[in-house]
Write a structure and sequence with these properties.
With 315 residues, this protein is of the alpha/beta class. The chain has three domains: 140 residues, ATPase, nucleotide binding domain (Nucleotidyltransferase, domain 5); 47 residues, no CATH class; 125 residues, ATPase, nucleotide binding domain (Nucleotidyltransferase, domain 5, 2-Layer Sandwich), CATH 3.30.420.40. Helices cover 35% and strands 33% of the residues.
């Protein structure tokens, strides 16, 4: 199956398969996103993206037609809902009613996933996208000659890797993990306790476009040059301050911080020794996601294709 993660700077395409307890990554493709085709993480020019997809798939002789798309955007509504013990039909109805009450009369497409049982109740994370957005992505895939299989969100993709494939913590590990996915336009935070998703938040990177373009041009520079670049230092401080806000949220929620681990993935993880530089600014240890992966995840480009990999898992 194809999974496609369309970002502001790059489109990540993964050809893979899931069988039993293994995930196979057969082909990974990284291409530039057409200019002005993505706004706030959402495709606004489906024809341009479709043309780029069609061209690269033909060039790489990829015949898979079934495709799932991953979306990362602040426009995605994510809400935790606690439910009584009940059957799936009742859960469907309760989630639909709760989200309708929260969203009002606007036309949204809603999906949800279940979490751990807590105090005799069930926990659900529901996420919603405007139905018009869903139709835009379907149009994009069809124009590229692909068959739409599903839309997924980045937070749900990494959740599946954590809960089903032990991406972060092994069974019985009591600690907290913050997975920080730093892209070109957004930082996507997901907090896990043991293997359960506690909190998810997507924030825009508070830097103007010229700064982001300059920082992006430094990807192949050595750490010695990055340390001397004033704009890069300012950019890292923005990232670090956002991580600190999440840590303050945990502290205010009375979680034990001695077991906290912070992992980084996304395009920003490609800068030379970026975890050292960011950790130095924050005075704490930060690791790349590769440092924790199990033997299932052997690809060196995991940090960039993490969301696309999680989208391979259909639950």
């Amino acid at each position: 199956m194809l999974t496609i993660d369309v970002g502001s700077r790059n489109i990540k395409i993964l050809v893979g398969s899931v069988s039993g307890k293994s995930i196979r990554m057969q082909n990974q493709i990284l291409l530039d996103t057409p200019e002005n085709a993505v706004l706030n993480g959402l495709v606004v020019d489906p024809d341009a993206v479709a043309a780029a997809l069609k061209g690269v798939l033909e060039q790489n002789r990829i015949r898979d037609k079934k495709a799932t798309v991953v979306i990362t955007s602040t426009d995605i509504v994510i809400r935790e809902i606690k439910l009584p013990k009940t059957g799936k039909k009742n859960i469907d109805m309760i989630v639909a009613n709760e989200m309708e009450s929260f969203l009002g009369e606007d036309d949204y497409s809603v999906e949800y996933f279940m979490q751990d049982q807590e105090d005799g109740a069930l926990r659900s994370f529901a996420f919603a996208l405007p139905s018009q957005v869903v139709e835009t992505y379907k149009k994009m895939l069809l124009s590229a000659g692909l068959m739409p299989a599903a839309l997924d969100i980045a937070s749900n993709c990494v959740r599946k890797l954590v809960t089903k494939w032990n991406l972060l913590a092994t069974d019985g590990d009591p600690r907290l993990d913050i997975l920080v996915d730093i892209g070109y336009s957004f930082i996507n935070f997901n907090i896990f306790e043991k293997k359960n998703l506690l909190y998810s938040r997507c924030v825009k990177i508070d830097a103007d476009e010229e700064v982001k373009k300059h920082v992006d041009s430094l990807r192949n520079k050595p750490r010695s040059e990055l340390e001397q670049d004033i704009e890069f230092a300012g950019y890292l401080s923005v990232i670090g301050d956002e991580i600190q806000k999440i840590i303050q949220f945990l502290i205010s929620s009375d979680f034990r911080m001695d077991d906290l681990k912070v992992f980084m993935c996304g395009g920003c993880a490609n800068f030379d020794e970026v975890t050292y530089l960011l950790g130095e600014y924050m005075n704490m240890d930060i690791s790349l996601i590769e440092s924790r992966r199990s033997q299932i995840f052997k690809e060196e480009r995991l940090k960039e294709f993490l969301n696309a990999l999680g989208a391979q898992i259909r639950l």
